[in-house]
């Protein structure tokens, strides 16, 4: 059976800023779904794994950077649901905590230089051409199966929210959630925080994947680009984590929460707004920047 019970409660975050602006912030704890198949990564993998099973595939092949939450999630999910698994890692051979965990879950790692890494179907062909049991899963698990899984988050909401915020890498998660909002004709406004620079293509892609549904795209919170950070962001993460007991990371959820605090302080929301942030999980972003935090 390929399934995980979804445990993703919604918690309210309290802060004097919110009371002074008359808004409420809630956080949907997708990070609690599983310690390693964390957050949106389970939602994205679910229908992909079901498809692999249906096609009687036995070996998952997927892709990611050396600190990829997706690689770790895929490694753990493969172990849990009886697949073997290869992770093709971008860049030179390295060791780090994330890859150690991947290996412990039984993932076989292949390192490919940045140039070769661009063409993932070619790499799949190169290493698994004659293997009928191998199953290709794109980097981050993007694609329509992943979006369907993410849209199910909306079915779990039992209270109304005026705004829903989500961080975007490939944008699949945001597109899935947006189509869930649309499917249910909810009045909730979707907000997307791209974590990379020059993300206009991402905006277009989310529009395409979600049939032109409307959303707000806040492209000024990338902090210099993907996995780029600053002392301001790291300090925000320290404050947030130490005052809420909720771990956020510099790559995705730190930028997400920072944007919401910033917009609240700039009076972006009318009073009595109820804002929901999706905690998409991920600790590898913290591990990957261990040496950037100063205490
Ligand atoms: C992978 C990841 C995302 C990005 O999801 P996309 O569907 O690629 O936009 C967001 N947050 C966390 C914590 C992630 O690990």
In short:
By secondary structure, the protein is of the alpha/beta class. It has two domains: 10-36 and 149-292, Rossmann fold; 40-141, Rossmann fold, CATH 3.40.50.1100.
- The averaged pLDDT comes out at 96
Number of domains: 2
Element pattern in H and E: EHEHEHEHEHHEHEHEHEHHEH
Span between termini:
45 Å
Percent in helix: 25-40%
Question: What does this protein look like?
Answer:
This protein has 295 residues and is α/β, with parallel strands linked by helices. The protein folds into two domains: 10-36 and 149-292, Rossmann fold (3-Layer(aba) Sandwich); 40-141, Rossmann fold, CATH 3.40.50.1100. Helices cover 39% and strands 17% of the residues. It has twelve helices and ten strands. The protein has helices at residues 16-21, 40-54, 69-81, 97-104, 114-117, 120-128, 144-151, 172-183, 200-209, 231-244, 253-265, 284-287; strands spanning 10-13, 24-28, 59-64, 84-90, 108-112, 134-137, 163-168, 189-194, 216-217, 274-278. The strands form two sheets. A six-stranded mixed beta sheet has the order 1-2-10-7-8-9, sandwiched between helices. A four-stranded parallel beta sheet has the order 5-4-3-6, sandwiched between helices. Helix 2 crosses helix 7 (144-151), helix 3 (69-81) packs parallel to helix 4 and helix 8 (172-183) packs parallel to helix 9. The longest helix has 15 residues, at 40-54. It is globular and about 60 Å long. The model has no long low-confidence stretch (mean pLDDT 96). Pyridoxal-5'-phosphate binds next to helix 2, helix 3, strand 7 and helix 8.
């Amino acid at each position: 059976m390929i399934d995980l019970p979804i445990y993703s409660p919604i918690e309210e975050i309290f802060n004097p800023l919110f009371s002074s602006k008359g808004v409420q912030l809630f956080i949907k704890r997708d990070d609690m779904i599983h310690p390693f198949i964390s957050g949106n990564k389970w939602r994205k993998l679910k229908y992909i794994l079901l498809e692999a099973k249906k096609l009687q595939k036995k070996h998952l092949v997927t892709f990611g950077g050396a600190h990829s939450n997706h690689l770790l999630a895929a490694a753990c999910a493969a172990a849990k649901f009886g697949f073997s698994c290869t992770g093709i890692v971008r860049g030179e051979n390295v060791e780090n905590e994330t890859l150690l965990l991947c290996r412990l879950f039984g993932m076989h790692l292949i390192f490919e230089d940045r140039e070769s890494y661009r063409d993932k179907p070619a790499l799949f062909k190169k290493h698994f051409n004659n293997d009928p049991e191998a199953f290709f899963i794109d980097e981050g698990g993007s694609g329509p199966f992943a979006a369907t899984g993410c849209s199910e988050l909306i079915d779990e909401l039992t209270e109304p929210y005026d705004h829903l915020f989500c961080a975007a890498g490939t944008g699949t998660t945001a597109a899935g959630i947006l189509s869930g909002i649309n499917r249910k004709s909810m009045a909730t406004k979707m907000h997307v925080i791209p974590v990379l620079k020059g993300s206009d293509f991402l905006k277009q892609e989310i529009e395409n994947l979600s049939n032109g549904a409307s959303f707000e795209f806040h492209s000024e919170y990338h902090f210099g680009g993907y996995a780029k950070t600053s002392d301001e962001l790291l300090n925000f993460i320290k404050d947030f984590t130490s005052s809420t007991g909720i771990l956020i990371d510099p790559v995705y959820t730190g930028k997400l929460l920072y944007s919401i605090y910033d917009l609240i302080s700039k009076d972006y929301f009318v009073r009595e707004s109820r804002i929901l942030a999706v905690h998409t999980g991920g600790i590898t972003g913290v591990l990957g920047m261990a040496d950037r935090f100063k205490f």
